[in-house]
Design a protein that fits this description.
Elements (H helix, E strand, L loop, with lengths): L10 E9 L5 H11 L20 H6 L6 E7 L2 E7 L7 H8 L4 E7 L6 H12 L4 E6 L8 H11 L4 E3 L6 H6 L3 H10 L4 H9 L4 E5 L8 H10 L11 E9 L5 E9 L2 E2 L3 E6 L2 E6 L2 E6 L2 E4 L2 E2 L4 E5 L9 E3 L13 E7 L5 H14 L6 E3 L4 E6 L2 H15 L3 E3 L3 E2 L2 E4 L3 E7 L6 E9 L6 E5 L8 H12 L15 E9 L7 H18 L2 E15 L3 H10 L3 E2 L3 E3 L2 E9 H4 L3 H7 L5 E11 L3 H8 L13 E5 L2 E5 L14 H6 L10 H4 L13 H12 L17 H14 L2 E6 H5 L3 H9 L1 H19 L2 E6 L10 E5 L2 E5 L6 H12 L4 E5 L3 H9 L3 E3 L1 H33 L1
Helix pairs in contact: 12-13, 23-24, 24-27
């Protein structure tokens, strides 16, 4: 939310600077600090004295490794500047910073143009919906053209990039971004700063400035543009903060970097949060506002302040405090895993505990201890990050480590939709979970949902299942790689009133997921890189041959002078170390830029799976089977036999079998998008037939050639009909309101609460169906409800129908009976005389409300007798054991 009115107080905004490595990002930061009077002397990266390169490693290497902060003032604007790493190896550090930015400045090198990582940054700005300014740097270099760079940016980034300060054509370009602005401009010939600010905030235009940060050219114009064309956010009064970084100072104090987004934060204030499912409560010791290496201690941090807080030990990057919620994980993730090799005689457990501290600062490291191989591994972006990690470990922990050869981080997904079933029932424990596993779009990750009626499984158990799905990294069944690109939906489950505990559903959930994976068609995924390869034209043939051998794809080369540019993509496993070969055959003239593209099917899956040697059924930490109970003892059931023992029946598998073979087989009503809730499902004759088919299987209609000659004598015809009826599945159609007002106990409830009477009838019908094992459909009359459409949903094990406007229950039942009586043994329970007559004409059985009541009472009596017998038998067994 932004303040679009004139703001008399000092405007405070948080701006981040992003760029491809070596584009001059830190130099621009230095120039902005100098132009605003924050520093008196310009530092330089190559002189190792840049104000924001506060770590010796950064000064030595000439690159930004950690995001840094500086606070400066320009006219009536206070800027919190966040300088982010440009090297792709530290892109996760950069991406974590994006969540707290109000605006961003993207730096583009005029001499290099739009590079691979520049496009990645642009996509991230769109993903986080951050308004952006652009600064084209190094315009002092020879043979650079502002017009050409602007054209390239419009082609590859956005047509909304507009050259500023205002020159000829600028206002016309601004006006073209919005119809209302264009109409106003055509009338007045003017566009206000406030209007331009709104277009910038809405990401409809991106002001672009040209200059040289090293020579302070264009920097003043950029600052002026940010002061004129930005809004100060309006913050909530309620406290909120976003945590974007965890780090340690030179004395080893743990710092939590956050942006205050509402209310205020005071020293010694107690904050609350949750970590790993545990609620924590901790007091703040200090609030520091950094500028470079130095910081100012604050007694209170107001909204918009970016600060580092000491005293908190449970916070994590991406956490939301107060009203803020947790943010997404960075989209840029490592694709390689490396073994960390310790020196001989090192205490491995102590070393691992120390190394895990680094994971707080960079969660993507995902340090792991492998019991089987006795190895510590870490996920790393690249060689530069490895060198930095080695130095950090030596400086901080006094340990010398080396990194082994890198291995690819594979993932797994599925190609078909399956239902996974997990059951956990050792003695005095109970839980069953049914999960629908569906493949989703590449790069979508894992999503978890539930669509179970609360009458079937209480909401608290459903939430617990979703928690267990999200609490760990689940392994696939091909080589134990993490699963991805899947939608997992809870479609069934069961708990026990006495014996179910929280941990039972954890076990059942894990087993359901693994059982589903065993049933599905799994596919191994590997990471791919987009590449841009610039080589001398004489080496193009060699380069294209190499890419083809890598199982990559290369586009038509583009020739520029004596060099050629090849673009395309290839598996990370093949191309990640290709730069060494490029340098060799091009004699150092070649350049290779790699950008993570995403995961796709592995090009040599069979070899990888064979070399991995993973046995999914021998993985005792991730079991595929379930535990059931019989005769007072639990026993293990393999994954492929679980369906024979499961306690809950779900119909998800029938949804697959009923998919039409072609679009022509689908009615217009079926082509409409299905409602998300079962309570919003519309029932038609065809859909009613599907209810029966889901329960009893698809109806097989005989062709003419399959029809046999029958004896058509009246006596034989009667016998044929009876035999046919005896073999058909049974369905009971219940006229809901007729039964309610015919049964005294329900009629009494209805006088006080008609909803309560309906619920009571449905509960009675659930018991009845459970004993009879038939299909029960209860129909309620919605004749007088305006614009009401026919709806159907499932209450426990009973189908409930509300008729459409102007259709009575007896009309619906008569229509339905006619439609299905030839294929199902239909009984209709009602006391409506006319309805009974119509039903008789349709060949269905009819039962009065009184007779139906007697049958229901007999069913209840049978259930009681069964329970009494079971209890007596249990008591006998107990006494015998004693």
């Amino acid at each position: 939310m932004t303040d679009i009115s004139a703001n008399k107080q000092k405007k405070r905004i948080c701006i981040g600077i992003l760029a491809h490595v070596d584009s001059g990002k830190t130099t621009l930061s230095e120039a902005m600090l100098y132009m605003t009077g924050k520093i008196r002397k310009l530092g330089r990266v190559d002189h190792k004295d840049a104000y924001l390169d506060t770590f010796q490693m950064e000064r030595d290497r000439g690159i930004t490794i950690f995001s840094k902060q500086a606070v400066m003032t320009y006219k009536n604007m206070e800027i919190t500047l966040l300088d982010t790493p440009g090297h792709v190896d530290f892109s996760t550090e950069m991406e974590r910073t994006l969540q707290v930015l109000d605006y961003a400045v993207l730096v583009v090198s005029a001499s290099e143009g739009i590079q691979g990582h520049t496009e990645t940054l642009w996509k991230l700005l769109a993903r986080y919906d951050i308004p952006a300014f652009i600064f084209v740097n190094k315009m002092d270099m020879p043979n650079v053209s502002a017009d050409f760079i602007l054209y390239e940016m419009k082609e590859r980034l956005s047509d909304g990039i507009v050259r500023f300060p205002e020159t000829v054509g600028t206002l016309e370009d601004v006006a073209m971004s919005d119809e209302d602005v264009l109409e106003s401009y055509m009338e007045t010939g003017k566009i206000s700063d406030e209007t331009i600010s709104g277009l910038v905030y809405d990401r409809k235009i991106f002001p672009c400035y040209f200059g040289s940060a090293l020579k302070l050219e264009g920097v003043e114009e950029l600052l002026e543009g940010m002061e004129r064309f930005t809004f100060m956010p309006v913050y909530r009064r309620q406290f909120g903060a976003k945590v974007f970084k965890i780090a340690k100072d030179s004395k080893g104090n743990r710092l939590t970097y956050m942006k205050i987004t509402g209310g205020a934060l005071n020293v010694k204030e107690v904050l609350h949060g949750s970590s790993s499912g545990e609620i924590w409560e901790e007091k703040i010791n200090e609030i520091r506002q950094y500028s470079g290496e130095k910081y100012e201690l604050l007694a209170r941090a107001f909204p918009g302040t970016v600060c580092a807080v000491s005293g908190l030990t449970k916070t994590y990057s991406g956490e939301g405090l107060g009203y803020e919620t947790e943010t997404e994980l960075p989209s840029l993730q490592p694709v390689m895993s490396y073994q960390i090799i310790l020196e001989d005689h090192t205490n491995v457990s102590q070393a691992y505990a120390r190394l895990k501290e680094l994971e707080e600062e960079d969660p993507t490291l995902q340090l792991k201890w492998n019991e089987e191989t006795q190895e510590i591994t870490a996920n790393v972006m690249g060689e530069i990050q490895i060198q930095v990690l080695k130095q950090m470990i030596a400086d901080r922990f006094g340990m010398k480590v080396t990194f082994g050869a890198g291995s690819i981080l594979y993932k797994e997904t599925i190609l078909d939709t399956v239902e996974g079933i997990g059951h956990f029932e050792p003695l005095r424990h109970y839980a069953e979970v049914h999960l629908l596993l569906e493949p989703s779009n590449p790069g979508s990750g894992l999503t978890f949902h539930t669509r179970v009626n609360e009458n079937v499984l209480a909401k608290n158990w459903q939430r617990l299942i979703l928690t267990h799905l999200a609490e760990k990294e689940h392994r696939g069944v091909l080589c134990g790689a993490p699963i991805t690109d899947m939608c997992v939906t809870v479609v069934g489950g069961k708990a026990h009133l006495k014996h179910t505990e929280g941990g039972d559903f954890r076990q059942a959930t894990y087993r359901a997921l693994r059982q589903g994976l065993k049933k599905a068609k799994s596919v191994l995924l590997e990471p791919y890189y987009d590449f841009t390869l610039n080589v001398p034209t004489e080496n193009v043939g060699r380069a294209m041959t190499d890419i083809n051998k890598m199982q990559g794809k290369v586009n038509t080369p583009e020739t520029k002078g004596e060099s050629s540019i090849l673009t395309g993509y290839a598996p990370v496993s093949e191309i990640w170390n290709y730069l060494n070969e490029v340098n060799a055959y091009s004699h150092g003239k070649g350049r290779l830029t790699l950008k993570f593209k995403g995961y796709a099917p592995c090009h040599n899956a069979e070899n990888v799976i064979e070399q991995c040697g993973y046995d999914s059924e021998a993985d005792i930490k991730n079991p595929t089977g379930s535990v059931f109970c019989a005769h007072g003892a639990g026993f293990y059931v393999p994954w492929d036999e679980v369906e024979n023992y499961m306690h809950v029946k779900t119909a998800t598998n029938f949804n697959l079998a009923e998919q039409p073979e072609s679009e022509n087989d689908v009615s217009e009503s079926e082509k409409e998008e299905k409602p998300s809730s079962a309570y919003d499902t519309y029932a038609s004759d065809k859909e009613l037939e599907k209810i029966f088919e889901k329960t009893f299987g698809p109806v097989r209609r005989k062709r003419y050639s399959e029809t046999k000659v029958r004896d058509y004598s009246p006596k034989q015809e009667s016998r044929n009909k009876k035999a046919k009826k005896d073999n058909l599945p049974e369905c009971v159609l219940v006229d809901g309101y007729n039964i309610i007002f015919a049964w005294e106990e329900l009629k009494k409830i209805a006088k006080e609460n008609i909803d309560g009477a309906r619920d009571k009838l449905l509960d009675i019908m659930s018991n009845y169906q459970g004993y009879k094992d038939n299909t029960v459909i209860v129909v309620f009359d919605a004749y007088n409800v305006k614009r009401h459409t026919e709806t159907i949903y499932k209450h426990n094990n009973v189908y409930v129908v509300f008729t459409k406007e102007a259709e009575t229950a007896d009309m619906y039942i008569a229509k339905t009976t006619h439609h299905i009586a030839s294929r199902y043994s239909v009984t209709v329970a009602t006391s409506d005389a006319l309805e009974q007559l119509i039903i008789m004409g349709q060949g269905a059985l009819r039962m009065s409300a009184r007779n139906f009541r007697e049958e229901v009472e007999q069913v209840n009596e049978n259930i009681r007798m069964y329970l009494d017998q079971t209890e007596s038998l249990n008591n006998f067994v107990i006494k015998k054991k004693q």
